[in-house]
Amino acid sequence: MANERGKAIDKTFLSVDNAEERGFLHRDYIAHCLRWTHVVKWLHQGGRYKTARILDVGCGKEMPLAKLMHSSRLGPQFYAAADVSKLSMPDQFAKSTWKPSQLLGECDAAVLKPEQIEQTPNTIVCFEVAEHIEPEHCRRLLANFGNLLEPEGTLFISTPCWDPDVGAAANHVNEMTYLAFGALLEDVGWRVEGHWGTFASMRDYKDELPPAHKEVFDAMRDYYDSNYLATIFAPLYPSRSRNCLWQLKWNPGGGRQFPDLRDVEGRWGSSEKWRELLA
């Protein structure tokens, strides 16, 4: 089973240049930018970036997270860029005092070995990758992150939340429901420290808005269009969002916020191979 484009691993990525050419940033790209800024904010807190050893999986050819850290003057101790596509150093770093330490192009992080990374990561970032691979591949990827990450390190991962009534994007190999993905993370051995919606349609959470949120939302609607509004309250309603960002610690056998994956009712993902998520 592959996606609508016939690919079991889809290399599609959002391009800054293409977004600028349209003169319009879709909510998907706005949400991408806010995910990157969330990680950068977290790295800045307490000066974490000074000792950060980052593995950026699915970094994309343009390496936007690395560029944001560079422009924010937050050069980490180590930064490895990994992607299934070929990688080359972006022009922005040509004369920079800081640049990515290691490029891991044409890399499948599900089989990446610790010794292939020059320094052991204490931070792994994997945004918008899980939906581009088959379910069994995704499970192996999540498990391998536990092998690659330093004990007590942090994993940030984001992926769409599949709604069978809406369907998956044409370039996505497998999207998972919110409940199934949370359950899978904990089944594999991850502890959920925090998770947030990154964008959501108003109709998906309007019935849950308390009066104070509804008043603010209506006031902001006078200025913002629905495209930007989609990102504003989504962090507060992850279970109702179209996409979530998860902050995780490796903790096999730890406590759970989600049921066992086997106990999640209904179909878990958009791929016909969704049952392969079980070990």
Walk me through what this model shows:
The chain is of the alpha/beta class and 279 residues long. It has one domain: Vaccinia Virus protein VP39 (Rossmann fold). It has eight helices and seven strands, in the order H-H-E-H-E-E-E-H-E-H-E-H-H-H-E. The chain has helices spanning 16-22, 27-44, 64-71, 135-148, 178-188, 202-205, 211-221, 226-232, and strands at residues 53-57, 78-82, 102-104, 123-127, 154-160, 190-199, 243-250. It has a seven-stranded mixed beta sheet with strand order 3-2-1-4-5-7-6. The two termini are 19 Å apart.
For the structure shown, list the relevant keywords.
alpha/beta, Rossmann fold, 279 residues
pLDDT under 50 segments (min length 5)? none
CATH architecture, by name, is: 3-Layer(aba) Sandwich
* Largest sheet data: 7 strands, mixed
Order of SSEs:
HHEHEEEHEHEHHHE
Percent helix range: 25-40%
Mean pLDDT metric: 91
| Helix count from the secondary structure assignment | 8
Might you state the CATH topology name? Rossmann fold
Total number of β-strand segments? 7
Structural class: alpha/beta
The CATH superfamily turns out to be Vaccinia Virus protein VP39
Give the topology, please.
Elements: H1 16-22, H2 27-44, E1 53-57, H3 64-71, E2 78-82, E3 102-104, E4 123-127, H4 135-148, E5 154-160, H5 178-188, E6 190-199, H6 202-205, H7 211-221, H8 226-232, E7 243-250
Parallel strand pairs: 1-2, 1-4, 2-3, 4-5
Antiparallel strand pairs: 5-7, 6-7
What's this entry about, in short?
It contains 8 helices and 7 strands. By secondary structure, it is α/β, with parallel strands linked by helices. A 7-stranded mixed beta sheet has the order 3-2-1-4-5-7-6.
